[in-house]
Amino acid sequence: MGRLLTWLAGALGAAGAVILLRRRRRRTQEDSDPAEELRRRLDESRSRPDAPSSAGAETEPDAGDAEAHRRAVHERGRSALDEMAGPPDEG
Fold first, then answer.
1. Closest Cα to residue 75, out of 83, 86, 63, 64?
2. What's the rounded Cα separation, in Å, for the pair 12 and 39?
3. Torsion sign, CA atoms 77, 82, 86, 91
4. CA dist., res. 30 & res. 47, Å (int)
5. The whole model's pTM is what?
6. Do 51 and 45 contact (CB within 8 A), yes or no?
7. Which residues, 6+ apart, have CB-to-CB distance to 51 below 8 Å?
8. Which residues have CB under 8 Å from 44's CB, separation 6+?
9. How open is the CA angle 73-78-83, to the nearest 5 degrees?
């Protein structure tokens, strides 16, 4: 009789936990719509006067500037690689 009551109490507890978790999941899915959240944030960013404009982003940089930038980036990468490698082992 004791085992039966233990199993019954365990089953009731498990069923209660499942019901509780389903209710929480359903409530969070109804409350948060990711698309609505993104739309709201986009509207907020558009309404701010200090937001950077994207008018200058459409122009391409000068080819000489791009080449100089590329060389600088590669040089920084090489120096970082050399720094990570450390001094060569003698032996």
1. 83
2. 43
3. positive
4. 27
5. 0.31
6. yes
7. 45
8. none
9. 125
Quote the CA–CA distance of 42 and 38 in Å, as a whole number: 6
Look up residue 66 and give its two tokens.
């791009």
Q: What's the length of the chain?
A: 91
% of the chain with per-residue pLDDT over 70: 78
Residue 84 scores a pLDDT above 70: yes
In this structure, what token pair is assigned to residue 37? 């959240």
Tokens of 30: 């109804």
| Residues 50-75 pLDDT 10s | 755 555 454 555 667 889 999 999 99
Task: State the DSSP code for 27.
Answer: H
SS3 content of the chain, % helix, strand, coil (to 5): 80, 0, 20
